[in-house]
Write a structure and sequence with these properties.
This is DNA mismatch repair protein MSH3. Heterodimer consisting of MSH2-MSH3 (MutS beta). Forms a ternary complex with MutL alpha (MLH1-PMS1). The chain is an alpha/beta fold. 51% of the residues lie in helices and 14% in strands. The chain has five domains: 191 residues, Nucleotidyltransferase, domain 5; 143 residues, Orthogonal Bundle (MutS, DNA mismatch repair protein, Chain A, domain 3), CATH 1.10.1420.10; 101 residues, MutS, DNA mismatch repair protein, Chain A, domain 3 (Orthogonal Bundle); 209 residues, 3-Layer(aba) Sandwich (Rossmann fold), CATH 3.40.50; 106 residues, no CATH class. It has 30 helices and 21 strands. The strands form four sheets. It has a seven-stranded mixed β-sheet with strand order 7-17-18-19-15-20-21, sandwiched between helices. A six-stranded mixed β-sheet has the order 5-4-1-2-3-6, with helices on both faces. The longest helix is centred in the middle third of the chain and has 33 residues.
Length: 855
């Protein structure tokens, strides 16, 4: 049986509102990722039974007439599934009722409830999920030209088809929404073609919404959203949340198109002007494919409105087609081909056959009513012309009545119109002598200095005109419905025009950003390389260079407080997203690899609703990152381990850094633990960087710290920069003196214990022996005679014995050869855990006694 025969005949009413929950609270997903436009998006989730999780998803946007199917090969944390759900912001999530059972509840259901707690979940019987029914819906609802390609794309993905079946059946039977045949945009979206961005990363990087001021444009979406249509803004938002990973098929054509828009100024301005003529056509076309269950006067009125809006839409298409006449790039040429006259001309001819040329859609209530009344051409239907004559006579009588009333009262009433009251009068209260209102005025409402009212004759004339308008609408309905049925046959072509307009609008917004800022076209290669790269939102931030490859995949960034570490690492993540949506980036030169997943650990928020502290949230997110990063991932981590004790924080930071190095992910790791830089400096793939600071300390003066915001090689060399910053801020001197003495005492005790420790001696002995071996090797290869060689070896022997005795006695001799140490020494010290712990405790006790004596 065809799916169209199963439609229920009831009015189409939305079941849920996307932006709010049933309790009236705003959805956390909407508020954190950017607040949707009130769309109704129904999502069905189907999970395959097996060891490796495979999840089928179907999203049906009733507001824009689009269905997206996807089947995801996920892991046990369902990271890709929750990301896809958050991107589409569903109004409700449909799931098999057995998965929601409390004993046992499926892992997928639990994960969705945890990650999207404010989105209602609707359990449905398993019979809703039917692959055969899903294929029937695709055959019946999808565009005829797309049916076979959709079946090929979904072949081998039965879970996505089952989810689509559940979503459509829910709309039909529970939400009572009827969709016209072959009018729904159905497409299969592989999850492998887009970058996966974790939900904490979307919030922390402020991709869609500023965390501090939600209405602010200080976010990536606000920066790039210079679109002229709502369709372009939606496409931009979707691309930011799902950047493409297809360099050849998607990104390079977009780069070429933006480059051409930037170089051809005349074409760019013509395109921007033409785009302003388009409204939210996607929603308009969706209203055409959602069929009313029963005829009604309101539905007939809206049908005429739709015709007038479609007329404005198809009239604007030739203007856009002409503006792209000089386009040379492949993508712009393809967009122009989708907007050709073969699409708009037949529809415009059909409309002009029945609709007057001078009739347009208006937003003012009275103008819109007049346009609806006189939209159909005269002499097409006799009864329609009679009803129009009656309406015009009643309108003339209304104006004559108002003129006579003003003459009788000696006042100047203003005739106004609105949908509820129809025609009414407005007087100034000061025009009435002694504030006495004439008895002929009824329905009086006083608003500030004005009096709004009617007369009995006006009430009668309003009713007479309303009856005439209703008759006009009824007589016009048959012609309008015939015209709408004809337009519905061309819906696939009109939707393709909408998608082309949205894409062109987004590209034009990129070009607008490029022309007003110093952006450069990026290259998509295997290496991350930026020359003078800038933070896209904080454009005034000092430009810096970036470089990342397999040889330098893990980069440790140290520096003083307020030196710009967080801004530096956040910038690279934002620039990566910009490059993978097809936008130019702020830099002198830019090269990016294709990244498949983006993670960040930057915020310091706790989670009260989950009873989790800042450190607990940090550990949970880091565990998530460690499980999901690979050699195609980018992760930015800011101040890991600061939520607990210094000792434990450093230990955890080192352990997790080691794991990330082994994952071969591209990682930017900002930290205050300088020990981390020393421990990992000899690891393959690790690069130490620091944000430079200039500190000038004069005698008896407050130190002056200048943040240069420039990245330099190696770990930070500034000592006690926290105390110096406290001095610069203006702390009382007695507190600063105590802090300096305690810091100095801690350092001296730690150095003494380090020198006297057995593991330190062992490390220094080993290094001395290695240096001796290298020196002997050089002497062996040197061209010295026997006498000179003998003298040299005796001196070398004497020095070696002296230095070794100095190490054994702990006098500090041998420091010159030992230098500042290496990662090998540090790791060997770490092997002697008990002795290091004892030394640290003794150092802390010494510092406490020092502070007490100072007090």
């Amino acid at each position: 049986m065809s799916s169209s025969s199963a439609f229920r005949s009831r009015a189409a009413t939305p079941a849920y509102s996307l932006a709010t929950t049933p309790s009236g609270r705003r959805s956390r997903v909407a508020s954190s990722i950017g607040a949707s436009e009130g769309h109704q998006v129904v999502c069905a989730v189907s999970e395959a039974r097996g060891i490796t999780p495979s999840v089928g998803l179907a999203f049906v946007n009733v507001s824009t007439g689009q269905a997206v199917l996807s089947q995801i090969r996920d892991n046990q944390s369902y990271v890709k599934t929750t990301h896809k759900l958050a991107v589409f912001e569903p109004s409700c999530i449909l799931i098999v009722s057995t998965a929601c059972a409390p004993n046992p509840k499926s892992d997928l259901c639990s994960t969705i409830e945890e990650e999207l707690p404010d989105v209602p979940m609707v359990p449905l019987n398993r019979k809703y999920w039917s692959e055969m029914t899903g294929l029937e819906y695709i055959q019946d609802l999808a565009f005829k030209k797309d049916v076979q390609s959709i079946k090929v794309a979904t072949d081998g993905n039965p879970d996505a088809i089952c989810a689509f079946s559940a979503a459509i059946r829910y709309l039909e039977l529970d939400s009572c929404i009827r969709i016209a045949s072959h009018s729904l945009r159905v497409r299969y979206q592989p999850s492998e073609e887009s970058m996966m961005i974790s939900l904490p990363t979307i919030r922390a990087l402020e991709l869609i919404q500023n965390l501090q001021i939600p209405a602010s444009k200080a976010c990536l979406f606000g920066l790039l959203n210079q679109t002229a249509t709502p369709m372009g803004a939606r496409m931009l938002r979707s691309n930011i949340l799902q950047p493409s990973t297809q360099a050849e098929g998607v990104l390079k054509p977009r780069f070429d198109a933006v480059d051409e828009l930037c170089t051809k100024e005349d074409m760019f301005y013509k395109i921007r002007k033409a785009l302003k003529e388009f409204g939210d056509v996607e929603k308009l076309l969706t209203k055409l494919i959602i069929l009313p269950a029963e005829p009604s006067l309101e539905a007939s009125e809206q049908a005429i409105n739709y015709i007038l809006m479609i007329k404005r839409f198809v009239t604007a298409i030739p203007l856009l087609f002409a503006s792209l006449e000089s386009a040379q790039s492949t993508l712009l040429s393809r967009i122009r081909g989708n907007c050709g006259p073969e699409i708009s001309s037949p529809i415009l001819e059909q409309i002009q056959e029945y609709i007057n040329d001078d009739v347009t859609y208006s937003t003012k209530p009275l103008d819109l009513r007049n346009q609806r009344c006189f939209a159909i051409r005269s002499e097409i239907q006799g009864l329609l012309d009679v009803a129009r004559t009656t309406y015009k006579e009643a309108t003339d009588d209304m104006h004559e009545h108002v003129y006579a009333l003003n003459t009788e009262l000696g006042l100047a009433a203003e005739l106004r119109y609105e949908n509820k009251r129809r025609y009414w009068l407005r007087f100034r209260c000061s025009d009435f002598e002694n504030g006495i209102i004439p008895g002929t005025l009824v329905n009086c409402v006083r608003k500030k200095q004005f009096l709004e009212c009617q007369t009995l004759q006006m009430v009668k004339l309003n009713q007479r005109m309303t009856d005439s308008v209703d008759e006009i609408i009824i007589q016009s309905d048959s012609i309008v419905q015939q015209l709408l049925d004809s337009i519905r046959r061309d819906i696939p072509g009109l939707f393709r025009v909408c998608e082309s307009v949205a894409l062109l609008d987004m590209l034009a917004a990129f070009a607008q950003a490029v022309t007003t800022r110093d952006y450069v076209k990026p290259d998509m290669k295997d290496v991350l390389a930026l020359k003078a790269g800038r933070h896209p939102i904080l454009d005034a931030f000092i430009p810096n260079d970036y470089y990342g490859s397999n040889q330098y995949a893990f980069q440790i960034v140290t520096g003083c407080n307020m030196s710009g570490k967080s801004t530096y690492i956040r910038a690279i993540a934002l620039l990566q997203v910009m490059a993978q949506i097809g936008c130019f980036v702020p830099a002198q030169y830019a090269s990016f690899p294709i990244i498949h997943s983006l993670f960040s650990r930057t915020s310091i928020d706790d989670s009260i609703e989950h009873n989790m502290s800042t450190f607990s949230v940090e550990m949970r997110e880091m565990a998530f990152i460690l499980q999901n990063t690979d050699n195609h991932s980018l992760a930015i981590i800011d101040e890991l381990g600061r939520g607990t004790s210094t000792r434990d924080g450093l230990s955890i930071a080192i352990a997790m850094a080691e794991a990330l190095v082994q994952n071969n992910a591209l990682v930017f790791f900002a930290t205050h633990f300088t020990e981390l830089a020393h421990v990992l400096e000899d690891r393959p793939g690790v690069l130490n960087l620091h944000l430079a600071t200039e500190t000038i300390v004069a005698d008896d003066e407050v130190p002056k710290m200048t943040m240069l915001y420039k990245v330099g090689a190696g770990p930070v060399k500034e000592e006690h920069y926290g105390v110096n910053l406290a001095k610069a801020i203006g702390f009382p001197q007695r507190f600063l003196s105590v802090a300096e003495l305690v810091a100095k005492s801690l350092r001296e005790i730690a150095e003494t214990k380090k020198k006297s420790s057995g593991s330190s001696k062992l490390a220094r002995r080993r290094k001395l022996v290695l240096n001796l071996h290298e020196t002997l090797q050089q002497a062996y290869n040197a061209n010295m005679d026997d006498r000179t060689l003998r003298s040299y070896l005796k001196r070398l022997q004497s020095e070696f014995i002296t230095l070794m005795e100095g190490i054994e006695s702990g006098s500090g001799d041998g420091e010159e050869e030992e230098g500042e140490g290496s990662s090998r020494q540090v790791s060997e010290v770490g092997d002697d855990g008990e002795e290091g712990q004892e030394n640290e405790d003794e150092a802390s006790e010494g510092a406490m006694s020092t502070g007490s004596s100072i007090s």
